[in-house]
Every structure is written in C-alpha cells, then in structure tokens.
Amino acid sequence: MPPNPTVISHTLPPTRQIPNSPLPLLHYPSLLHDLVTTPTFQPTHLLDLYTQHGWQTQWIAKYGPDIPSHYHSTTHECMTVISGSHATIRFGVADGEEKGGGGVEIKAQLGDVFIVPAGVAHKTFSPEPSSSGLAFYQPEDIAAGRAWEVGAEREGKRRRFFEGVELKGEFMMMGAYPYGGVWDFAVGGEHAGREEEVWRVPVPDKDPVLGDSRAGLVGLWEGKSHASLT
Length: 230
Hints:
InterPro entries: RmlC-like_jellyroll (IPR014710), RmlC_Cupin_sf (IPR011051), YjiB-like (IPR047121). By secondary structure, the protein is α+β, with helices and mostly antiparallel strands. It has one domain: Jelly Rolls (Sandwich), CATH 2.60.120. The strands form two sheets. Strands 1-2-7-4-10-3-9 form a seven-stranded antiparallel β-sheet, with helices on one face. A three-stranded antiparallel β-sheet has the order 6-5-8, with no helix packed on it. The mean pLDDT is 94.
C-alpha cells in the first residue's frame, strides 16, 4: 500500500432526481493495482482486506455495455476494479439528466478503488474488453437481503462462494459495504424532498482499504454534514 495514496474527491450536489451527498465521492487511482495484478490474486484477498476494516464483500460483477444509473439510499459502497482494462463510470446524475450537464465521468482502471456515499448516483458502461451482458455474483443469502446476518459460519460460507468466482480478464468490480449495510436500488426521484433521510446514513469507522488512515474517508469525510449542500 503506498504511504501517500492519491485521492481524488468530488462533491456532487443534489439534482432533481438524485440526492447525491455532502460527503465527497472518493477515487483512489490504481491503489490496489499491485494486489490485483499479482499472478496469485484471488477475490478473497480483497475480501480479507475489506473484512479487516469492517466492510463486508457482497458481490462481484462482470459488466456489460450499460447498466441503469442508480443510487443506494441505505448504505455507503466501495467498488474496486479487479479485472479487465477499463470502463466509464458516470456519477451524480440519473439517466437522461446527463444531457443537461452535471455529474462526472471517470475512466475506471484496474486497481482503482471508489468509495461511493449513500445517495450518489452511479452507472458503469463501455467496458473493455467488451462484454455482451452483466453477470452478478452474490451468495444466496446476501441476494435475499440477509447481509446483516453475520457470524463465523455464515461468513465462512460466503467466503467459499467468492473463492469460486473466476476472473477471466473481463471488466469486473468487487463491491463491499459496512457490516450491517443492506443496499437498495433507486434510479431517481424516490427521495425527492426527502434527501436528508439519505444524508443521515452513518459514516463508517474505517476506510475499507486504508483503515483508520486520515488519507481516506476517516479524514476526508470528517465534519461533513448536509448543511454544506444547503
């Protein structure tokens, strides 16, 4: 892990359809490149890093040409590029809103880490190598909304599930949430007039990758509140 990681932050104000957040979107370019490009890399190596800092791996996704823009109103999210070359991720706007400007597009590359605050819209598209469709890998209990059920036996079964996910060079990301976080899938307008409900999602104690380092969310999210958006 580099001692002084590069961190790029973007504070995205609400739109007519998307709450976004007073907490900045955090992008750590190539932070885990060395890890994910080692010949022996397995997704569980990253799972263990997340777990060490209080974040739970819940999915691995292989991306197709496009997915709907969406946000999570109930939890913050970490995404790490673990395979493939690159893709574009658009943050901060609902589908259709990008035509009026706003939001930010980032070229996501191997080893990049993104920490997405609750409420911030995101969509991944145009992956390289190109792929015909989305494949989403989740343990059955997490897919059923029971991520909040934890314990050594249950986490062991989930770990074994991720041991079986193969990386074949296509663009893939791995997603994690603070333990106890169960995510929803909102596409825009669901929290119009109620944005503060999303902004109140508690800030986790540690960064999923940088732990308690103030170079990560521990320092960059400290003291942020919804007042900065009003």
